[in-house]
Amino acid sequence: MRTSALVVAGFALLCSVAAAQDAARPAAPPRQKAPHGAKVFILSPRNGATVGQDVLVKFGAAGIKVVPSTDTTPGTGHHHLLIDQKELPPGNAPIPNDATHKHYGKGQTEDTIHLAPGDHTLQLDFADAAHMQFDPPLVSKKITVHVK
After folding, report:
1. Which residues have CB under 8 Å from 16's CB, separation 6+?
2. What is the pLDDT of residues 28-66, one digit of tens each?
């Protein structure tokens, strides 16, 4: 019986610590509304293309201005390239910055990426200065490339 009481007390302590940590986290910045008619797209390579391991990916945008992430003007943003992602990142947090979520915070509209041989998916995810997706998300169609 005493062991059960200790387990319950320990669990309650862990829950209160977790709740305190959640309360201490700053709230995510609010998501900006996507400008009406805005869209992003991959100009090249084409869906289904066979490419080498170093792939030049060109990004396109219409109805929204591409700017560096230091520019906080509402209704502007920058590209992120999602590589081999099955789903979009959560909308309530900034887009991760790692090998499969590439940030283009200088306002870049193309990049040469290195991919291993095989099939890979690419998708653009446009975000504001805080790397937050727009509401609704401004994403390109997902394309597949075959790397030789």
Report:
1. none
2. 668 999 999 999 999 999 999 999 999 999 999 999 999
Sign of the dihedral defined by the CA atoms of residues 32, 37, 38, 44, in that order: positive
User: What does the alpha-carbon distance between residue 126 and residue 79 come to, in Å, rounded to a whole number?
Assistant: 5
| For the chain, counts of helices (H) and of strands (E) | 1, 11
Nearest to 136 by CA among 121, 122, 125: 125
Above pLDDT 90, what percent of the chain? 79
CA–CA dist 38, 133 (Å, integer): 13
Q: How many CB atoms lie within 10 A of CB 120?
A: 18
Give the other-Cβ count within 10 Å of 99's Cβ. Answer: 9
Please say whether the beta carbons of 64 and 74 come within 8 A.
Answer: no
The residues, ordered by sequence, that sit 6+ positions from 31 with a Cβ below 8 Å of its Cβ are 91, 128, 132, 133, 134, 135
